[in-house]
């Protein structure tokens, strides 16, 4: 069992996901029920209405069309498809589009040679710093030693916020003055983690997107300097997205994936939005797994993404 598995039972995880998806589920079900009302079979009209439901649920146009085409193929193959079967078909198609990552249910796998280096990226305001703090808390609860690296030196508040989390979770933080070279901070943080024999080091990075070339160069430089100390660093590049921004989150994901190689996604504020369908579109379009979801404001309100629980929660009324 992975480290996260020791912290949360599968049932607890599913309960949290169900609660977090309540607004999305209510919205999808209301629209879906309306789309099939009075219909006995899946015909062109039902498919048109279903397409509208998925797009308005922030699944995204491209992914929606992929789902509709798959259902059309099943209708053609089976000749007759009742609307009562639509929920199950949608479950299967959506589950097939959500990317899985080996070991995702247990959160992560520690490398043989530590520290495990986690680099976190994302625009300002999506909950990046909060996610880092919650991750540090989970790792510490799992019995791991953690070091934080405040490499977002572009914004003074970012360092201050991370320092508050380091105090709250009671883990050391490595920081420099505002405007310092982010790569230098990252180097110092990894070096500190090595000297402390720490298990995990989490590196916060700048969240600006206004100059993609500079962002790309900066993230590349951070990787290069960390690799001088840990050759296979970073072991994970986690992109944090705000689920409540819907399709804007998908656009952010596309931009960041051009700037650096993203290996996993964290969706925050899932509990406060009806736009949870964006997880499907992002995972499908970018072929990157959703690994963590934020389902509340509390320090423990971060969960490992469970694909099966997500799909079940979305379609169980």
From TrEMBL:
It holds the Pfam family SRP54_N. Residues 289-302 form the SRP54-type proteins GTP-binding domain. GO terms for cellular component: cytoplasm; plasma membrane. It is an enzyme of class 3 (hydrolase). Its EC number is 3.6.5.4. It is a peripheral membrane protein. GO terms for biological process: SRP-dependent cotranslational protein targeting to membrane. It catalyses: GTP + H2O = GDP + phosphate + H(+). InterPro entries: AAA+_ATPase, P-loop_NTPase, Signal_recog_particl_SRP54_hlx, SR_rcpt_FtsY, SRP/SRP_N, SRP54_GTPase_dom, SRP54_N_sf. Its main location: membrane. Keywords: Cell membrane, Cytoplasm, GTP-binding, Hydrolase, Membrane, Nucleotide-binding, Receptor. It is found in: Cell membrane; Cytoplasm. SMART domains: AAA, SRP54, SRP54_N. GO terms for molecular function: GTP binding; GTPase activity; signal recognition particle binding. GTP binds at residues 122-129, 204-208, 268-271. Part of the signal recognition particle protein translocation system, which is composed of SRP and FtsY. PANTHER family: SIGNAL RECOGNITION PARTICLE RECEPTOR SUBUNIT ALPHA. Belongs to the GTP-binding SRP family. FtsY subfamily. Involved in targeting and insertion of nascent membrane proteins into the cytoplasmic membrane. Acts as a receptor for the complex formed by the signal recognition particle (SRP) and the ribosome-nascent chain (RNC). This is Signal recognition particle receptor FtsY. It comes from Croceimicrobium hydrocarbonivorans. The lineage of its organism: Bacteria, Pseudomonadati, Bacteroidota, Flavobacteriia, Flavobacteriales.
């Amino acid at each position: 069992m992975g480290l996260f598995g020791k912290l949360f039972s599968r049932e607890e995880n599913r309960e949290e996901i169900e609660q977090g998806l309540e607004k999305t589920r209510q919205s999808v079900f209301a629209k879906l029920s309306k789309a099939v009302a009075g219909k006995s079979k899946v015909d062109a009209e039902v498919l048109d209405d279903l397409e509208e439901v998925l797009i308005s649920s922030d699944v995204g146009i491209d992914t929606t069309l992929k789902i509709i085409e798959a259902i059309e193929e099943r209708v053609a193959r089976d000749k007759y498809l009742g609307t009562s079967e639509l929920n199950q078909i949608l479950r299967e198609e959506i589950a097939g589009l959500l990317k899985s990552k080996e070991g995702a249910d247990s959160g992560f796998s520690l490398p043989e040679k530590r520290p495990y280096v986690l680099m976190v990226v994302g625009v300002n305001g999506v909950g990046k710093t909060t996610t880092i703090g919650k991750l540090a808390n989970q790792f510490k609860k799992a019995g791991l030693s953690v070091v934080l690296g405040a490499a977002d030196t572009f914004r003074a508040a970012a360092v201050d916020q991370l320092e508050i989390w380091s105090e709250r979770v009671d883990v050391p933080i490595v920081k420099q003055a505002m405007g310092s070279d982010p790569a230098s901070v990252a180097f110092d943080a990894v070096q500190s983690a090595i000297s402390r024999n720490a298990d995990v080091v989490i590196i916060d990075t700048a969240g600006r997107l206004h100059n993609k070339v500079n962002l790309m160069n900066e993230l590349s430089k951070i990787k290069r300097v960390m690799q001088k100390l840990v050759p296979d660093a970073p072991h994970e590049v986690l992109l944090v997205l705000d689920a409540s921004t819907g399709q804007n989150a998908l656009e952010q994901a596309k931009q960041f994936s051009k700037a650096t190689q993203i290996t996993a996604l964290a969706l925050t504020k899932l509990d406060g939005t009806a736009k949870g369908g964006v997880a499907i579109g992002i995972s499908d379009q970018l072929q990157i797994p959703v690994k963590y979801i934020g389902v509340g404001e509390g320090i423990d309100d971060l969960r490992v993404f469970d694909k099966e629980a997500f799909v079940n929660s979305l379609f169980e009324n």
